[in-house]
Amino acid sequence: MAQLRKQYSTAQIRNPLSIPSAEARRRKQKMTRMLFLLPAVCYMAFVYVLPIAYNLLISFQNYSLTTMANGNAEFIGLDNYIKILGNPLMINTIKNTALFVFFSILVQFSAGFALALYFNRRFPLSRFLRMILLLPWLLPLVVAATAFRWILSQTNGVLNEILLSLHLIGEPMGWLVTPGLALFSIILVNIWAGIPFNFVLLYSGLQDIPKDYYEAAKIDGASRIQTFLKITLPSLRHTIAVVLMLGFIYTMQVFDLVLGLTGGGPANSSQILSTLSYSFSFMDSNYGQGAAVGNLMLFVMMLFSLIYLRYGTKEDY
Fold first, then answer.
1. For 15-22, what is the mean pLDDT?
2. pLDDT for 169
3. DSSP sequence for 151-167
4. pLDDT digits over 144-156, tens only?
5. Largest alpha-carbon pair distance within the chain?
6. pLDDT score, position 75
7. Is 212 helix (H, G, I), strand (E, B) or coil?
8. pLDDT 10s digits, 273-316
9. Distance separating alpha carbons of residues 290 and 263, to the nearest angstrom
10. pLDDT of residue 69
11. Which residues are paired to 75 by β-bridges?
12. Are 155 and 162 in contact (CB under 8 A)?
């Protein structure tokens, strides 16, 4: 028996390829993982990377209907970016977008947080009321825009009829046709549509906080404000970061709501970056400048996403 073991060991030494080495096993495992990842990588490349790369290429070309037909788009470098940044309409659109995003996120988050804190308690009909709060989130924005276009109509709108019957206004107001009110009206409609999103995520975060924390704080004699500042807010730090980040991205991308309500008017007073990109591309047939506006939006959203990934996902130890 000892002689057989010795012969087997000698055969292994003479033929080391009979048993795979640790390096070969790791290489095989790595290749297997890469093969499993290949479908997802191909999907990401064709669905996300390729359109973004093509949009970036168009922004550096004089791309119009003519050049799209003959396939000879001239490379013009940064001219499209220089033109849109020097356009007074672009400056006004950036201001409108900043106001639209800031006030939408501020009110949506505040109202959603307040509702989440309120529904975190148990009371009759809480489940039914939570279901009702989700309805604005379930409606497509095109449908919401159509409904609010009728509600805010100056001639036969429901809102004007209610305000007139209560003697709060003397004449019908042009909520969607007055330059000073159009952007304000769009912000209100977007807030109405975005509150359920903030409410759902923050309510889920509140449900994950252990009840023992609040019981211990109550035993120690902590007030409601102290409990909120010392337990609720720190426990929701990551949830709040996710809600604000996603809210910023979704609000920057709002398009169908503005297009359905005002189309960016009147006199471009409610124009935001998403509708301006659409206007350049499909109304003026200047696809290069439209792509440049879209790339600027993408750059801003990527910048905020990188800030979140860099600072918003750190754990405190």
1. 58
2. 84
3. HT-TTT-HHHHHHHHTT
4. 888 999 999 888 8
5. 111
6. 83
7. helix
8. 999 999 988 888 888 888 999 999 999 998 888 887 776 655 54
9. 16
10. 72
11. 61
12. no
Enter the tokens of residue 172.
């019908």
Tokens representing 314 are 């750190």
> The tokens 């609000």 sit on which residue?
251
- Interior angle at CA 187, CA 181 and CA 189, nearest 5: 100
- Write out the two tokens for 181: 């009110």
Would you say 56 and 295 are in contact if contact means Cβ atoms under 8 Å apart? yes
Residues 6+ apart with CB under 8 A from 34: none
The letter for the amino acid at 304 is: F
Residue ranges and CATH numbers for the domains of the chain are 22-75 (no CATH), 79-312 (1.10.3720.10)
Kindly give the residue spans of alpha helices, DSSP state H, lying in the chain: 2-14, 22-44, 50-58, 65-70, 79-86, 88-119, 126-133, 135-138, 141-151, 158-165, 179-207, 211-219, 224-227, 233-235, 237-252, 256-261, 273-278, 287-307
Cα torsion at 75, 81, 87, 91 (round to 10°)? 160
**Three-class secondary structure of residue 317 per DSSP:** coil
Enter the tokens of residue 38: 């290949």
Say which amino acid occupies 119.
Answer: F
Model confidence over 50-72: pLDDT tens digits?
888 888 888 888 887 777 777 77
Q: At what angle do helices 79-86 and 287-307 cross, to 10 degrees?
A: 80
- Cβ partners under 8 Å of residue 293, min gap 6: 84, 90, 273, 276, 277, 280
The model's pLDDT over 234-271, given as tens digits with 9 standing for 90+, comes to 888 888 988 999 999 999 989 989 988 988 888 888 99
Q: What is the mean pLDDT of residues 187-215?
A: 90
